[in-house]
Write a structure and sequence with these properties.
Order of helices and strands: HHHHHHHHHHH
Oligomer: single chain
Low-confidence stretches: 129-134, 281-299
Helix content: over 70%
Largest sheet: none
Distance between the termini: 48 Å
Mean pLDDT: 77
Radius of gyration: 18 Å
Strand content: under 5%
């Protein structure tokens, strides 16, 4: 099996950003595989999903140890996302692997990336909470399950949504949850979701194992380093840059003409500068007392 060192290095960058920001790797890894390395969208999506199954547990272990995971919300999300992710991979299988099908999948991927970048931009304008509270979490059961189902299907179909979309929905449903708990909870729910999508990918094909091995080699150590940083407070200043890159990738996928893409790139650059100036460089570290071990997700 051939290991592509350049692909491994690129995957290391993506893995670090995933661990540090909690954003889904599909929003970054899949565009890199398709646009930089010329891999077919179906193979890139499937390979990325399998690699994520190896990449994310290391980051989740760090967040779990530091009590930045809200397990009840994870369970609710997975009730919806696990079956929906498998259905998403089946939908991709039904599309086939012809040139026309790959183009359609590329357009769907582009639309998902544009939606994901919009979610990241909204996230940049939502302040993190730093006030601790002893009140129990008020779980929103059915809306949380619905969010899991919607995003799970998108992950299975495009590999996008595990981080960028679920993150913003979590903020809407649980607005007082701290940033580090958002990252930890989102990463934890992505493991069962990714397992379901991976099972579907293995059954329905489209996987390139050499690509998957290169991704794992580069991303796993990097996501550990990123998670060590994010569990102590996420560097939100990175998010605007990621949002800009994801937006331009999505526009490229859907076939935006070069002149329009150039204008979008300039506008994105100014937007990134604005959001970077507005964002705080680092969230304050979370210091939990024993009495907050269960109810701290309401912070």
């Amino acid at each position: 099996m051939h290991i592509d060192i350049y692909l491994a290095l690129g995957s290391a960058v993506v893995g670090f950003l995933v661990g540090m920001t909690g954003l889904g790797g599909g929003a970054l890894m899949t565009p890199m595989l398709v646009l930089v390395f010329g891999i077919a969208p179906s193979a890139a999506i499937s390979s990325d999903l399998i690699a994520a199954l190896f990449m994310k547990p290391f980051g989740v272990a760090i967040h779990w140890k530091r009590k930045t995971v809200e397990s009840k919300i994870v369970k609710l999300l997975c009730i919806g996302s696990v079956p929906a992710a498998f259905l998403g991979t089946y939908a991709m299988h039904l599309m086939g692997n012809s040139a026309t099908a790959e183009r359609r999948l590329q357009i769907l991927l582009g639309a998902a990336l544009i939606l994901g970048s919009a979610a990241m931009i909204v996230r940049a304008f939502v302040p993190s909470q730093h006030v601790q509270s002893s009140k129990p979490v008020r779980y929103r059961t059915y809306p949380t399950i619905a969010v899991g189902a919607l995003c799970g299907f998108m992950v299975g179909l495009t590999s996008v949504g595990a981080g960028s979309l679920i993150m913003i929905f979590l903020i809407m449903l649980y607005p007082t949850m701290r940033n580090e708990r958002l990252v930890g909870t989102d990463m934890a729910q992505s493991i069962p979701l990714t397992m379901a999508a991976t099972a579907g990918s293995l059954i329905f094909g489209h996987i390139e194992f050499a690509v998957t091995a290169s991704i794992i080699l580069g991303s796993v150590p990097a996501v550990v380093v990123g998670s060590l940083i994010s569990s102590r407070g996420t560097f939100k200043v990175v998010r605007p840059f990621i949002a800009g890159v994801v937006l331009l990738s999505g526009l490229k996928y859907v076939g935006t003409p070069i002149p329009v893409l150039g204008v979008a790139a300039v506008a994105t650059m100014f937007g990134v500068v604005f959001m970077t100036v507005r964002a705080k460089p680092v969230d304050k570290p979370l210091e939990l007392e024993p009495r907050f071990a269960v109810a701290s997700a309401s912070e």
